[in-house]
């Protein structure tokens, strides 16, 4: 029989309630970075936490021994440092954080799943997960990505925030930013940052964002994450398919 955890996730538990090694710990990974003039700095963390929490709730209801850890709310966001409010810990610190987090969790839990919602973290997550897996730890990751979504603070993320945190969206500031293909912008983004290609920090057009689209996007993410966690078959890069 599955064991039910207390409301509030990992931080609300007592150690005897976790005193065996069958648990899967799910940790949301976000960032603190500009998201245009209309979305909060913690947008990525909100998305990661929402998707992870809903997936954990479903998996627990199905009988899986799974618990949600508090989010890791800082990431590698150097490309956004041209805008006030952004706080980036960089790739080296993020890698060390994930590796030490994973080593510690896997001393008492069976598995660790990192749910990442900031694209700039992805390379570092792959590297950290690969090291942890090479050490014999059952660690995987999954990305909060919407099919056909735009790049940053545009229609996709704005729709999601309108769905999950409507009060956090400054609706009168919803705007269009750089709308060129992300591949065409990538060279400048890497060398000069987001501000060099978008004065307002938006990569996309947020004006058509709709909360119902956001709800469908989140539901789809949760469905895919739950399916991947059920299968638990990490690929070569440690990602759950």
Automatic annotation (TrEMBL):
<dbReference type="InterPro" id="IPR003785">
    <property type="entry name" value="Creatininase/forma_Hydrolase"/>
</dbReference>
<protein>
    <submittedName>
        <fullName>Creatinine amidohydrolase</fullName>
    </submittedName>
</protein>
<dbReference type="InterPro" id="IPR024087">
    <property type="entry name" value="Creatininase-like_sf"/>
</dbReference>
<comment type="similarity">
    <text>Belongs to the creatininase superfamily.</text>
</comment>
<keyword id="KW-0378">Hydrolase</keyword>
<dbReference type="Pfam" id="PF02633">
    <property type="entry name" value="Creatininase"/>
</dbReference>
<dbReference type="InterPro" id="IPR023871">
    <property type="entry name" value="MftE"/>
</dbReference>
<keyword id="KW-0479">Metal-binding</keyword>
<keyword id="KW-0862">Zinc</keyword>
